[in-house]
């Protein structure tokens, strides 16, 4: 069942979204060469507790994964792209880090992801990240009232293919609101003018993710961390948006300084 949200409910989601954006920006500045992933995780736990928010990830137990997720962040490094388990790893010069976070405030949730390079970047990594960010903005722009869910998928896929990257169809965006994962599924490739109608009040997370030289994935033994099948670098960008009568409203924008990082 798809629940359309009122303007007031979207406003409450925006409160959570603003904190997600601010905390992602903060974490991108905490991360750096020589920083342990667990220090980033602990910093996020402390800030979420201080804000009185609740992590959507803690105790999350979907059909995949091995046991409940016991962290508040997904931290995916280099060839890891989704659901990376925070662990004892010290970031090195040139590492590509993706941070994914979903949390709720007052019963309403928001979800966002951001990829960037710590230290000196490889230009090809920056191009990969750029492709996910351009695809995300194209998907957001396509989320117009009266349109179709396929418009979003087609826009994302078109950008990915224009950069020369393949698109994996196993994971994509999703509805969000009272819970982290709601209907509908938002694929990262598809046909325009197909699928469900985009009515005002629909709230979704749009999240293009790409692997540099493959569209295949593999799982770590932890059952959570998803990597490119060939070990190539990966990137992931995500925002929570609301479809409104005036067009798409992004609820998880990062502050301008963070958005300029990479």
From TrEMBL:
Any single Pfam family the record assigns to this protein: Peptidase_M24
Molecular function per GO: initiator methionyl aminopeptidase activity; metal ion binding; metalloaminopeptidase activity
Binding site for a divalent metal cation 1: 100, 111, 238
EC class of the enzyme, as a word: hydrolase
Peptidase M24 domain sequence ranges: 12-244
Record bears the keyword Ion transport: no
EC code(s) of this entry: 3.4.11.18
Residues that hold a divalent metal cation 2 according to the record: 111, 174, 207, 238
CDD domains: MetAP1 (cd01086)
Cofactor note text: Binds 2 divalent metal cations per subunit. Has a high-affinity and a low affinity metal-binding site. The true nature of the physiological cofactor is under debate. The enzyme is active with cobalt, zinc, manganese or divalent iron ions. Most likely, methionine aminopeptidases function as mononuclear Fe(2+)-metalloproteases under physiological conditions, and the catalytically relevant metal-binding site has been assigned to the histidine-containing high-affinity site.
InterPro entries linked to this entry: Creatinase/aminopeptidase-like, Pept_M24, Pept_M24_MAP, Pept_M24A_MAP1
Reactions catalysed: Release of N-terminal amino acids, preferentially methionine, from peptides and arylamides
Cofactor: Co(2+); Zn(2+); Mn(2+); Fe(2+)
GO BP term, pick one: proteolysis
A cellular component term, taken from the record's GO annotations: cytosol
Keywords recorded for this protein, A-Z: Aminopeptidase, Hydrolase, Metal-binding, Protease
Binding site for substrate: 83, 181
NCBIfam families named in the record: met_pdase_I
Family annotation (PANTHER family): METHIONINE AMINOPEPTIDASE (PTHR43330)
Record's function text: Removes the N-terminal methionine from nascent proteins. The N-terminal methionine is often cleaved when the second residue in the primary sequence is small and uncharged (Met-Ala-, Cys, Gly, Pro, Ser, Thr, or Val). Requires deformylation of the N(alpha)-formylated initiator methionine before it can be hydrolyzed.
Assembly, per entry: Monomer.
Family classification: Belongs to the peptidase M24A family. Methionine aminopeptidase type 1 subfamily.
Protein name from the UniProt record: Methionine aminopeptidase
Organism of origin: Paractinoplanes brasiliensis
Gene giving rise to this polypeptide: map
């Amino acid at each position: 069942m798809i629940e359309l949200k009122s303007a007031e409910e979207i406003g409450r989601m925006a409160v959570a979204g603003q904190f997600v954006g601010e905390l992602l920006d903060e974490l991108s500045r905490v991360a750096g060469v020589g920083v342990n992933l667990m220090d980033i995780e602990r910093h996020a736990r402390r800030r979420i507790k201080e804000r009185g928010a609740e992590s959507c990830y803690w105790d999350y137990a979907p059909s995949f994964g091995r046991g409940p997720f016991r962290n508040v962040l997904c931290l995916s490094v280099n060839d890891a792209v989704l659901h990376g388990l925070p662990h004892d790893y010290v970031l090195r010069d040139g590492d590509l880090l993706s941070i994914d976070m979903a949390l709720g405030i007052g019963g309403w949730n928001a979800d966002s992801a951001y990829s960037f390079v710590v230290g000196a970047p490889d230009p090809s990594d920056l191009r990969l990240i750029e492709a996910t960010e351009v695809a995300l903005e194209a998907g957001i722009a396509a989320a117009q009232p009266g349109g179709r869910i396929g418009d979003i998928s087609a826009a994302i896929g078109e950008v990915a293919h224009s950069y020369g990257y393949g698109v994996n169809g196993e994971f994509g965006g999703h509805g969000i609101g009272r819970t982290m994962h709601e209907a509908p599924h938002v694929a990262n490739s598809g046909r325009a003018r197909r699928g469900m109608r985009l009515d005002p009040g629909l709230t979704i997370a749009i999240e293009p993710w790409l692997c540099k030289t493959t569209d295949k994935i593999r799982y770590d033994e932890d059952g959570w961390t998803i990597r490119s099948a060939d070990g190539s670098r990966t990137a992931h960008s995500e925002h929570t948006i609301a479809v409104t009568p005036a067009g798409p409203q992004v609820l998880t924008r990062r502050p301008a300084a963070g958005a300029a990082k990479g």
